[in-house]
Amino acid sequence: MNIVLLGAPGAGKGTQALRMEERYKLRHISTGDIFRHHMRVQTDIGNLARSYIKKGQLVPDEVTFAIVSGALDEAGRENFLLDGFPRNLAQAEKLDEFARIDKVIDIDVDFSVLTDRICGRRSCMECGYTAHVSDLPDGTCPKCGSEMHQRIDDREETVRSRLDVYARQTAPLIDYYEKKGVLVRVSGMGSPDEVFAEIRKVLG
Ligand code: AP5
Ligand code: MG
Question: Cis omega (within 30 of 0) on the bond before 9?
Fold first, then answer.
């Protein structure tokens, strides 16, 4: 099963991907996570990606696709879960040349809740755990005790730009995949477990 997760920034793609990866034994490929890894270890790709990510803009397609095609090849181009890719029409068309897509799950969330979800998010640099700041009384990771950080693109002015890029470039992919007959929509407004229950209804 080859799956794409669509949804605005903060819709819950990463949260659901972790559950789907475990339940359906899929290879989770998150372009955002891969870029953040490159930024942490300061590769050339990481330095380039940072200059776009901190402004809330998309990293150029050639760089992004090189990363995705490498990860898909590693997965044998089967049983993968793409999170954060494709993000515009050119990426979607390129992906179609490269691999079969069985289902596209669009996690649909009201824009009004996204800014709070994203600006309140804190992530652990050690174990990757994420949580809302209101659930972190002393600012340390409940899982491993390390310090929790805010992503460089999770500040309010950058979030505005990310939501704008989503509306202009990524949202049209809903139509693109609907026309291909592979799109399913799930509401992302419930709790993470409720959203996952919706996804399980779709995937079995
Ligand atoms: P990326 O890392 O993909 O970020 P994003 O798409 O903007 O989405 P997020 O990761 O912020 O949100 P999410 O939907 O994963 O939600 P999450 O589960 O974390 O991309 C970052 C940047 O990298 C891009 O802006 C771009 O610059 C670059 N990039 C990446 N891919 C690219 C591409 N293909 N082309 C070019 N550039 C690319 O949840 C968010 C928060 O809400 C968390 O705190 C979570 O705990 C909470 N939450 C989750 N679900 C729920 C729920 N049901 N109820 C309440 N809270 C919830
Ligand atoms: Mg994410």
Answer: no
Q: Is 94 a catalytic residue?
A: no
Options 151, 155, 185, 200, the catalytic residue: 151
Please give the single-letter amino acid code of residue 133: V
Which pLDDT band holds residue 19 (cuts at 50, 70, 90)?
very high
Which pLDDT belongs to residue 75?
A: 95
Could you confirm whether domain 3-109+156-203 is CATH 3.40.50.300? yes
pLDDT in tens, 162-177: 999 999 999 999 999 9
- What CA–CA distance (Å, rounded) separates 22 from 116? 28
Spell out the domain ranges in the chain: 3-109+156-203
Q: Which ligand is nearest to the CA of 36?
A: 1
77 is catalytic: no
User: What pTM value is reported for the model?
Assistant: 0.96
Closest-lying ligand to the alpha carbon of 132? 1
Q: pLDDT tens across 28-41, in order? A: 999 999 999 999 99
